[in-house]
Amino acid sequence: MRSSPSTRAVRVAAGLAIPLVLVLSTLPALAAPTPTPSPVAPDRLPSAEQNGVALLRIVVPSQDGVDKLNELGVDLAEYKKPVDGGLEVHAVLSPAEADALRAQGFDVRGAISDQSDYAANQAERRSALNSAEAAEGETDTLTPLRAEWFTSTDDQRFLSVEVKSSATDAETVLTATWDRGRGTAPDSGGTTTMSRFTDAGQYMYHRFNAPITLEAVPSKVTVTSSKGGKITVPVTKWLGERRKPPSRHYVSDFVDHYMDPTELTGRIVKLAKQFPRIAQVVDLPYKTNGYRRAAQAQFGTASASTLYVTSKAFGHEGGNDVSVALAAPAAPSAPLTVSVTGKDVTVGLGGDAAGAANSTAAQVVAALNGDAAASALLTASTYRGNAGAGVVAAAPATRLTDNLKAPATVSRDPYQMKALRIGKTRDGSKTGVYLYCQEHAREWVTPLVCLETAERLLRNYAFDGATRKLVDGLDIFVLPTVNPDGAHYSMYDFNMQRKNMTNHCPAATGDPANRNSWGVDLNRNFSVGSLFDGYSGASSSCTSGTYAGPAELSEPEARNEAWLTHQFPNIKFAMNTHSYGGYFMWPPGAYKAAGRELLPRVDFGTENYFWDASGHILSAVQDWRGTGIWPGRTGPVPDVLYSAAGNSADEHWFNRGIIGWDFEVGADLYNPETKQFDAVGFQPDFSEGHEEAMEFSSGQIAILEVAQAFSQDRRSPRSDLKVTGRTAGSTTFTFTIDEPANLYYTLDGSRPTLASPKLVSSGMREGTQQLTVNRTTEVRWFTVDIAGNTERDYRPTGHNNNYRKARVDVRKA
């Protein structure tokens, strides 16, 4: 059993947030650069032509099967659950890839989601954006639905108002103001912001989440909109009775569609401008590679006679204007030639005595790369390292393309990542909390969680006392999207993109059919417990879904994460939000497969702190719609999922001592008809995605409450020694502590210090260590909690002796 939990309000602090969106090492269905052949098909098309790519179930008999899939480079989701017959995992597969796995004996089953779901999400998103654009700049019309006052059984009076705006976008904010009765000032009764109510992803109206308490019965209420609308209506008496509402009113629900990083960043910039006294934008120092690629074209159908060309300039900077033609021999025995006019390149294929083309792919590649004018525009390569001995066929002029499909509103330049800093006092003196989302591009719900949390904090500050205490007492950093380039690519090109867009692949894997496999898994690119240190759960293959990059912290996105924690050393707490599966995890997050050599576990007190804080945080998640995170999906990452080498939570914990958690939003939904839990996938329909954003934003708010309790903790822990067993010649004992704390002890009569033996856990997910002595012993000890409070104010580095002590008697044998 763990030491008894604290009976006071959440007192937590110290560890880290294991951000892992762990995904088994994944070679995304394209040719790997290593000698080991991929079991899956080599050609995966871009999102508009994804040819059936879907998120599928695979059932394996045991963990060995999961490991085998990992070794094969299958693009596994961070999801695993026991089922009849073994373990169910999910993988992103094309039909050819699924067939290849079935041919190897794997039990590949039905889809969690496919391209029809992707298309529906995009259509819904376009509809929401069009509605918002149509309403931009127009004064909205407000329609009153209800305005009533009522009493509860204790005669407390309440106000309830419901108003619908013609502007349906989430940025429309309605404010209600009421008087204290006839003849009084219109705003004498009070004022508050209304909550936006949606159902199944659709805007319904604005309301109070809970009725507002009244001191006097109002005669009228006036509702004004941020879009300019205004209406005044009488307040009538409602005959019904309700239970006493919460002591505070609270507004929520500020997201109504999936958003790309450009939208997300625009929203936090607007928030900082609207609330300059309590918010500011922090520009992160390292710009990303950008949503951009070189332009390419490929010629040929057989590997030996296929070649491809890649522009020197990015597509939007001129690469898309380059064209290449392979012209038939001009005459018998014609030589191989290259000519360039502007950006149009023509290869005159060489011919034999009969006039038939005889230039091989290797010869054409050499000719293009050897021509000064052509090589200034492009680089040519044979197909995936092939020797290129096959004869090349003539082909008409083909314009190179970067294949990117995002609208012009998405910049192709290196991206300026921005975080939103929220707090009344932002000088580093307050406890810092770091909330970051979307390390993995395809997890569309996660940035909405961060954005919703920021909106709640800022919009409730003026009206809600509890929110005001959080903003006044903490220094909060919100980074909605860690992976903006990959997220843009996921939104517009290939929805199952996990990584960023930086292509570190050599020519052997640089052909256009591999474009959906380029990039670095940002949550495997950090410097602690990394692939480069020998830890498991990441890949050195540049086409793997868990590619760790060419070096630790090679990616600007990862360096930005680390920079923020170093630039603001007051950050003591963090939360990395991923999807899906409904997990709640913390460090350590990686081990070496040989002997399962785990990164050092957090100490006894911190582990108990994680568990105790989790109760508060997960209760807040559950309060929204009843979602319960399973105990089996709560705990250190390797205990409940698998190893994730080089993840950001380990980076923050081991390098900075930041207590951090990892949400995997999107818990399985229980189906009462089948009596089974169903997985939701990375991009559920928005009505489900919306609910996930709402409930896990509540969880992020609870993390802020945990941090606030830590910052105010001045109470010392209390402990006792408890004998748990006796035999002739030995006595076994342990300790009980009234809150998460570390305990240092001595058995030799010496004064306990921070260098003394430290109490540990009995084992993974087990209780407190049991100690056994073989002779009567005086045990001396002290405890120190996560906030640094020491039992009895004992000073282990001093000379006072007010430590705890107890005599443990041993009966003679």
TrEMBL record:
Q: Which UniProt keywords apply?
A: Hydrolase, Metalloprotease, Protease, Signal, Zinc
List the PROSITE patterns hit by this protein, alphabetically: PEPTIDASE_M14
Location of the Peptidase M14 domain? 376-707
The organism's superkingdom is given as Bacteria
Gene3D superfamilies annotated for this entry? Zn peptidases (3.40.630.10)
Any Pfam family from its record, for instance, is CHB_HEX_C_1
The residue range of the signal peptide is 1-31
- Cofactor dependence: Zn(2+)
Family stated for the protein in its record? Belongs to the peptidase M14 family.
User: Which protein, by its recorded name, is this?
Assistant: M14 family metallopeptidase
Species for this entry:
Sphaerisporangium aureirubrum
